[in-house]
Amino acid sequence: MADPSMTRPMTVTVKDDKAVLLTSGGIHYDLTRVAPQVYAGGYWVKIRADLSVVPKRLTISNDDRSCTWIATSP
Fold this sequence. Notes:
- 5% of the residues lie in helices and 58% in strands.
- The chain has one helix at residues 3-6, and strands at 10-15, 18-23, 28-35, 38-41, 45-50, 56-62, 68-73.
- A hairpin with a 3-residue loop joins strand 4 (38-41) and strand 5.
- The longest helix has 4 residues, at 3-6.
- The mean pLDDT is 86.
């Protein structure tokens, strides 16, 4: 059900030990560094941006991980 909004461009902006995920609809999620080049956050929706791997990976899932969405970027 979330796929149409999830396939739109998203931007991850990193500053200091924090990152912000911004969706094309204007919604932003604050992320905290949990490892070098890895940022995570969220309450009911868990977000993890792993910028340490190639290709970069964005994982979004619900609390119990029964629904997970993964995207990569060069």
